[in-house]
Amino acid sequence: MHGVVPVPLLGRGDGERQIRLKASQGVRQNPPAGIPKAITAALAAAFHDAPARPDGTLAPYTCSNTTCHRNTRTVCGTPRARATGWRPHGVEEERMDWREVIDELEAGVERIVGTLSGLGDQDMRAPSGLPGWSRGHVATHIARNADSLWNLLESARTGVEIPQYPSLDARNADLDAGAGRSRDELAEDVRATAARFVEAARALPEETWNVPVKSMLGWPHPAWYTLYRRWHEVEAHHVDLAAGYGPADWPEPYVRWALGSTLTDIAALPEGRRGELDGLRITATDYGESADLGWTPGGPEASGSGRALLGWLSGRSDGVGVSLRPDGPLPVPPPWPHEPTGF
């Protein structure tokens, strides 16, 4: 792949919805556009393709978000919009070559395999950070997700619509069938399926990267965004193994992209769908930037480092490192992640 994709350090926005991602210096940022106490709010992250109701059951997806609608710029030969958003202080612009994104995925999978190698067979039967799932379920899901996203790349390559998964029931049956395997079998499955996905990504013709594909729930997005969906899977579910890897271990490029993507997704939710975050200002203290989620002067403000905020917003931490002013319990974020739209 010889094209480059702009990677936002923070933020995506939608001018038509008048989403307020308030940049302290009024800059614009490029798209595309990370083990919870509030576990039901994060249940969707166990599936990453299906949201959850407050009681933890799967629900139809109804919310929306965006990636941008202004100041176009070329991505793989096709105009893609730029968002009014925020970015870390003093950074003009960051671009990431597709191969660098793939490199991040390969490194992330190697970290997962390293974590698994430190566990035993019985450890794989122990509970994970996700309700009802053992570590074996999480490892199996990471592998089956690679297969499912390979399906989307193959769909883009051939022009034949291939579903990500045959069905939710079939996907869950595969997870249950694979969860009881040995540590070595699970680790090899994670490694081999990730390598197959990466091989397909590297070989995908440049002209097919913008071919539209669909997630299991029917979310449309260009084929190149499959890499970013996989990035979420690799980093978030590594935390879900509950084996010592946490938000503090996330690579900085992932934190920068995923925090901006997450905040924009939340900002773009229809009124009432932001839940307890409505009316909040969220500030990344290390980036010197803020996002207003319906905030008005005098309203509550949450602040912390980018990775502390991402851990909280993604349900991968209980909010350690995040401060709320005025004092009080941190709001419970809505289920994460959200539909990527506006491509």
From TrEMBL:
<dbReference type="GO" id="GO:0046872">
    <property type="term" value="F:metal ion binding"/>
</dbReference>
<dbReference type="InterPro" id="IPR034660">
    <property type="entry name" value="DinB/YfiT-like"/>
</dbReference>
<dbReference type="InterPro" id="IPR017517">
    <property type="entry name" value="Maleyloyr_isom"/>
</dbReference>
<dbReference type="Pfam" id="PF11716">
    <property type="entry name" value="MDMPI_N"/>
</dbReference>
<dbReference type="InterPro" id="IPR024344">
    <property type="entry name" value="MDMPI_metal-binding"/>
</dbReference>
<protein>
    <submittedName>
        <fullName>Maleylpyruvate isomerase family mycothiol-dependent enzyme</fullName>
    </submittedName>
</protein>
<dbReference type="GO" id="GO:0016853">
    <property type="term" value="F:isomerase activity"/>
</dbReference>
<feature type="region of interest" description="Disordered">
    <location>
        <begin position="323"/>
        <end position="343"/>
    </location>
</feature>
<keyword id="KW-0413">Isomerase</keyword>
<feature type="domain" description="Mycothiol-dependent maleylpyruvate isomerase metal-binding">
    <location>
        <begin position="106"/>
        <end position="242"/>
    </location>
</feature>
<keyword id="KW-0670">Pyruvate</keyword>
<feature type="compositionally biased region" description="Pro residues">
    <location>
        <begin position="328"/>
        <end position="343"/>
    </location>
</feature>
